[in-house]
UniProtKB/TrEMBL annotation:
GO MF annotation list: calcium ion binding
Top-level lineage group: Eukaryota
PANTHER family assigned: CRUMBS FAMILY MEMBER
One Pfam short name: EGF
Classification of source organism: Eukaryota, Metazoa, Ecdysozoa, Arthropoda, Hexapoda
Stated name of the protein: EGF-like domain-containing protein
Length: 265
């Protein structure tokens, strides 16, 4: 009776190969990195991809064969054993709440409102284009601005002229809107800022005894047809309504031309 000899007893397979006993012989099943009858020959992994010459290396500059292994030298932006992993270039790059988009060996920052620049670190000056109108002062904020409007204007850009006549300030006459205020155009017979005073007509027998009578605002103005002596009122004499009498004995200086009275004589 014959006994089969176990050819695998002496572990003929090397480099992690598995020995399979056969009748009168054996077979080694080798790991992928080794070849040969006893797995004694190293497989050159870098020759496995003939087209690139880089074997298993993807996105690599070179492939180096090692005993039972290989080493890839990756291109910039790639990593991992076979250079198949796109490295994250966004770490710590974008500022001020920006969103980072990872590219191959690069990145792009989608900036938040109010910022610009490669890393979104520059504040945009919203006042650079002078958005405020009508002399408004522009104040820059992060992603915004504010117009400080001059008197008489309002609105986001100081574009609206304020209507000072909306409250009807003129008692009589027409209200004319002006920047920063209003003006009351009074009808005949009325005077004052709001046309609140009635004008007393300069009729015959009025306050001017010896000259022409006219009005300036709410004041009577008497024009004398002749000159008094130096101690009296000058050729043009003024008087406030319903005040004291200004007689020839008044001691107003020549050249002043103003006499605070109702009647200029």
């Amino acid at each position: 009776m014959q006994t089969d000899i176990d050819e695998c007893a002496d572990a003929p397979c090397r480099n992690g190969g598995t020995c399979i006993d056969l009748i009168g012989k054996f077979r080694c099943e080798c790991p992928p990195q080794w070849t040969g009858d006893t797995c004694q020959n190293d497989v050159d992994e870098c020759e496995s991809n003939v087209a690139s010459g880089l074997g298993p290396c993807i996105n690599a500059e070179s492939c180096r064969n090692l005993p039972g292994s290989f080493q890839c030298t990756c291109l910039e932006g790639w990593g991992g054993p076979t250079c198949a992993k796109n490295l994250d270039d966004c770490v710590g790059k974008c500022k001020n709440g920006a969103t980072c988009i990872d590219l191959v060996n690069d990145y792009h920052c989608a900036c938040a409102v109010g910022y610009t620049g490669r890393d979104c670190s520059t504040d945009i000056n919203e006042c650079a284009n002078f958005p405020c109108r009508n002399g408004g002062e522009c104040v820059d904020f992060i992603g915004n601005f504010k117009c400080i409007c001059p008197l008489g204007f309002s609105g986001t850009l100081c574009e609206e002229a304020k209507d000072h006549c909306v409250s009807s300030p003129c008692i009589e006459g027409q209200c004319l809107n002006t920047p920063g205020g209003y003006y009351c155009h009074c009808p005949p017979g009325r005077a004052g800022r709001h046309c609140e005073f009635p004008r007393v007509p300069c009729e015959k027998g009025g306050p001017c005894a010896n000259g022409k009578c006219t009005f300036v605002s709410i004041f009577l103005v008497c024009f004398s047809p002749f000159l008094q002596d130096k101690a009296a009122c000058d050729a043009q004499m003024w008087g406030e309504k319903l005040r004291r009498h200004c007689s020839k004995s008044s001691r107003s200086k020549r050249g002043m031309g103003k006499c605070l009275s109702t009647t200029c004589v």
